[in-house]
C-alpha cells in the first residue's frame, strides 16, 4: 500500500478533551462544571472541555481549556483515560481524552469562569452531567482515591501552611467519609513528609492548631517510591 | 452556535491504537512487534497497531488488532495512555491510544502472527521502534512495574500451575533484575493468594518443586485493595 492510500483511506474523527478540575474551598472538595451552550442538550451540565485543534497536542488542548476557563497557566494536568465508544456523544462521534487537575480555587479568575458559565460545585451537589461525563468524573475520583492509598496527594489543593485538621478534612472530602482523628494523625506523621512550623493557626480555637508545611525533598522521594509493596 | 457549526467546524484527526502485547516464554518476558509495511519507515520495527474505524470503539479497535495478529479473543486489554503530539507520526498527524495485554504465547496462532510479519522478541532484544513506540513501550513497562509494587500482576502470563521459581523468574523479567530467592518466597507467600498443590514439577530437579495455583477469591480481593497505604 502506498503512503498516500495508507493514511488517506483511514477515517478521521472528532477528538475532544474533557477536564475534571478539582478545587478545595471552605473545607469542601469542589468540581468546576459548566452549562453547555449548544445542542444536543444545551443548558445541561458538563465538564469543561473542547475540541482538539490541528495545531495543538491533546495535552496543549487540555491546558488551553483550563486557561480559557480559569485564567490559570502552568498547572500540572494528568491524563486519565480516553473514551472512544462510537455513540458516546449524541451529536456526532467524538473520541474524548480526559485530564484532571488539582487547583487552588482562590487563585483562579472568577470573572473569566463566570463569563464561560463555569461554576464550582461541591461533590455532593453535582447534578447529572451530559453523555458519559458522570462516568468520567467517577473514574477521576476513583483514580484520586486510588492514588491517595499509595501516594500523598492533594497537597496542591491546600495553602502552603496548613493544620492537621485541614489536611484531614481534605482527605475526608476525597474519601467522602469521616476519618478517625488520632489514627489519621499517627499515619500522616509516620509518612515523615511534614515539617512542623513554629506557628499556630488560631482561627478556629484559642489554643490554636500547629501549622505544617511539606518537606519537598522527602515528598519527592515518596512520590517516586509510593507506600506500596516492594519486591 | 448551531449544532451544525459546532461539530462541523471542528477539525478531524486520524486516530490509531497501538498495542503493547507482552508474553512469557522460556523464562523470558517477550514483546510482539512487527515490520512496518508502509512508508514512511517501511521495514522498521513497530508495535502492533491500526487505525480506529468508524464503526468501532477504541477498545474494539485494540481487540481487533490483537485478534488479527494473534488469533486471540476475549483477552483483557488495559488502556494505557493517549499520545497526541502534532508531529509524533512523520507520515500524517495521528493521535494514538495505547493498550497493553498479557497473554500466554503458547495459546496464540503462530501462523497468523507470521503472516502479519509479527515476531516475539525478548525485552533485551528489542530493536529501536518507529516514531514514539519505544516511549510507549517504556511507559507500559513502567506501568507494569508500578502495578507489580501494589498488585500481584503477571499471573495471566503463567500456566495454571506453576512453581515459585517460575513466578520469581517472571518477576525478575518484569523488573529486569535478580531477586533474592528467600525474600521473594517470604513476601509472595505472605500475600496469601497462592494455593499449594499436592503436586510437584520434576522437570528441573529430581527432588522437584511444589506446584502452586492462585486462590482466585483472595486474588480478586487483593486486586481491589492493593497492598498499599490505607487511611
Automatic annotation (TrEMBL), chains A, B:
<dbReference type="Pfam" id="PF00293">
    <property type="entry name" value="NUDIX"/>
</dbReference>
<dbReference type="InterPro" id="IPR036388">
    <property type="entry name" value="WH-like_DNA-bd_sf"/>
</dbReference>
<dbReference type="InterPro" id="IPR000086">
    <property type="entry name" value="NUDIX_hydrolase_dom"/>
</dbReference>
<dbReference type="InterPro" id="IPR015797">
    <property type="entry name" value="NUDIX_hydrolase-like_dom_sf"/>
</dbReference>
<dbReference type="InterPro" id="IPR054105">
    <property type="entry name" value="WHD_NrtR"/>
</dbReference>
<feature type="domain" description="Nudix hydrolase">
    <location>
        <begin position="11"/>
        <end position="145"/>
    </location>
</feature>
<dbReference type="InterPro" id="IPR036390">
    <property type="entry name" value="WH_DNA-bd_sf"/>
</dbReference>
<dbReference type="Pfam" id="PF21906">
    <property type="entry name" value="WHD_NrtR"/>
</dbReference>
<protein>
    <submittedName>
        <fullName>DNA mismatch repair protein MutT</fullName>
    </submittedName>
</protein>
Amino acid at each position: 500500500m502506498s503512503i498516500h492510500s495508507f493514511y488517506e483511506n483511514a477515517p478521521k474523527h472528532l477528538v475532544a478533551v474533557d477536564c475534571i478540575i478539582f478545587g478545595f474551598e471552605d473545607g469542601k472538595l469542589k468540581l468546576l462544571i459548566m452549562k453547555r451552550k449548544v445542542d444536543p442538550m444545551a443548558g445541561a451540565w458538563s465538564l469543561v472541555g473542547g475540541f482538539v485543534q490541528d495545531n495543538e497536542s491533546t495535552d496543549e488542548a487540555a491546558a488551553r481549556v483550563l486557561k480559557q476557563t480559569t485564567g490559570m497557566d502552568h498547572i500540572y494536568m494528568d491524563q486519565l483515560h480516553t473514551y472512544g465508544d462510537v455513540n458516546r456523544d449524541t451529536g456526532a462521534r467524538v473520541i474524548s481524552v480526559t485530564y484532571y487537575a488539582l487547583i487552588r480555587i482562590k487563585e483562579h479568575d472568577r470573572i473569566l469562569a463566570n463569563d464561560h458559565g463555569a461554576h464550582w460545585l461541591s461533590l455532593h451537589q453535582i447534578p447529572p452531567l451530559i453523555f458519559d461525563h458522570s462516568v468520567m468524573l467517577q473514574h477521576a475520583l476513583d483514580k484520586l482515591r486510588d492514588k491517595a492509598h499509595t501516594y500523598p496527594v492533594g497537597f496542591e489543593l491546600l495553602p502552603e501552611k496548613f493544620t492537621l485538621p485541614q489536611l484531614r478534612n481534605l482527605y475526608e472530602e476525597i474519601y467522602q467519609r469521616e476519618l478517625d482523628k488520632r489514627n489519621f494523625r499517627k499515619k500522616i506523621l509516620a509518612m515523615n513528609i511534614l515539617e512542623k512550623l513554629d506557628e499556630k493557626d488560631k482561627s478556629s480555637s484559642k489554643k490554636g492548631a500547629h501549622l505544617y508545611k511539606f518537606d519537598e525533598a522527602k515528598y519527592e522521594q515518596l512520590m517516586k517510591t509510593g507506600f506500596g509493596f516492594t519486591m
